[in-house]
Automatic annotation (TrEMBL):
Keywords: DNA-binding. Residues 1-21 are annotated as: Disordered. Residues 21-81 form the HTH tetR-type domain. This is TetR/AcrR family transcriptional regulator. InterPro entries: Homeodomain-like_sf, HTH-type_TetR-like_transc_reg, HTH_TetR.
Length: 425
């Protein structure tokens, strides 16, 4: 919840006290370190001040409280991100810009961000923007910083390729938090990174990509028995999914769900096997709420879908509304990011994260073959890249001070992934 105290007030409080700058710096570093391991919900004023052997009074003197501390920590993280990107550019130097070398750099960039407390804080701020004051313009600076990195790295990259890499790596960073040490993910990351740099990796958009098929098979063992959609348990699942859409994931637990439903916790476990299975089913239902028809791989293309393919994508990232098809990708991205963040503490969510990464691009690949113009047919790897990019695009649309971007931006990204330029719209 926001406080009436402004960031200017907090800065004034910091400037007028006698605390050495080193103490303020240490408090901010401690905040970033604690958020890295436990997220915004995992820190308290006591834990931050205790990290440097001080009392909570020191935080109130410098930042006015928890809100001021988090806001100042975002500024601190952005400063650190600037230094980190400059250091990477200096270290990389004149890297060859062939697709394979660039793909390895993309994967390295994602992994380096995952290990960085400053990048993690910025990602958490993007996914939990309601916890900060006036974070929008500052998060735009973070995206501009990322775009500057890629454009300065290689003058050969087109503006759309720069935007694709800057956005794709934001959302990929969320997956990397949980999956970075897994072989399946390493293979998927390299495949998708290569697609962003080469415009797909298969000559035929319809062709299977063996490594992707392998990863999806591993992520999805035999499915369990389906719950009767008319059963009380299914009604409970729908109710929890609605709570996830409106309030997020972190506060949902078995006891609270059972109490609200008026059933013993054992009944939920009996139907689903364990609470992790129930939560995974509820999260999945929340994420696919109001799934646009063109993303349904079981649906057939119709004339309206083909004629409105581009407006359908724009509607799905529209920040003006989050009901129905409008804002679908914003809802999906927020829940996905929260699942990745929460899985740090709740290991039972890791299989779900693994599955969500494995299926990235399935709906987009199907839509590109059935609905989109022929020049924008994506192979499964390029579809994964676009699917991950568009989620970051949706998140940044919500913090954009001028959110109504030209439709051509979407087309330009598809051109970058297919090498099929079309006239400007």
């Amino acid at each position: 919840m926001m406080t009436s105290r402004s960031r200017k007030d907090d800065a004034s409080a910091s400037a007028n006290d006698d605390t050495p700058p080193s103490v303020r710096h240490a408090l901010l570093e401690a905040t970033l370190a604690l958020v890295y391991t436990g997220g915004f919900d995992g820190i308290s004023l006591r834990s931050v001040s205790g990290e440097i052997g001080k009392s909570t009074t020191t935080i109130f003197q410098n930042f006015g409280g928890r809100q001021g501390l988090l806001d100042a920590a975002l500024d601190h993280a952005l400063a650190g991100e600037h230094l980190r990107h400059e250091a990477m550019l200096a270290d990389i130097g004149a890297l060859p810009t062939d697709a394979e070398s660039m793909a390895r750099l993309v994967a390295f960039y994602v992994g380096a961000a995952d290990q960085s407390a400053t990048a993690r804080f910025c990602l958490e701020a993007l996914l939990r923007i309601d916890r900060l004051t006036d974070a929008g313009s500052r998060l735009q600076q973070w995206m501009a910083m990322r775009e500057s990195f890629w454009s300065r790295l290689s003058s050969a990259l087109l503006p759309a390729q720069v935007r694709l890499l800057a956005g794709y790596t934001v959302m990929e960073q969320a997956f990397c938090i949980i999956l970075r040490d897994e072989l399946d993910y390493d293979q998927l990351l390299h495949m998708t990174a290569l697609a962003t740099c080469r415009g797909g990796i298969a000559a035929d958009p319809k062709a299977d990509i063996p490594v992707l098929t392998w990863a999806r098979t591993k992520a999805f063992p035999a499915a369990g028995e389906k719950i009767d959609e008319r059963s009380p348990m299914d009604e409970l699942l729908t109710r929890v999914a609605q709570q996830i859409v409106s309030d997020g994931i972190s506060d949902i637990n078995l006891r609270r769900i059972a109490t609200q439903a008026g059933v013993p916790p054992s009944l939920i476990i009996y139907h689903y096997g364990d609470f992790a299975a129930f939560m995974s089913a509820a999260i999945w239902r929340a994420m696919t709420h109001e799934l646009p028809s063109y993303l349904d791989i079981a649906s057939s293309a119709d004339r309206d879908a083909r004629e409105g393919w581009l407006s359908g994508l724009e509607t799905a990232v529209d920040p003006a509304a989050t009901d129905g098809a409008k804002g679908f990708y914003l809802r999906y991205a927020r829940i996905l990011g929260q699942v990745c963040l929460l899985a740090r503490q709740r290991q039972e969510l890791v299989p779900l994260v693994r599955q969500l990464r494995a299926i990235e691009g399935m709906g987009i690949h199907s839509a590109s073959l059935k609905v989109w113009p022929p020049q924008f047919r994506l192979d499964p790897a390029a579809a994964s890249a676009f699917s991950i990019w568009i989620k970051a695009h949706a998140l940044f649309r919500i913090v954009d001070s001028v959110p109504d971007q030209p439709v051509f931006d979407m087309v330009a990204i598809l051109e970058a992934l297919t090498g099929s330029p079309t006239p400007k719209i």
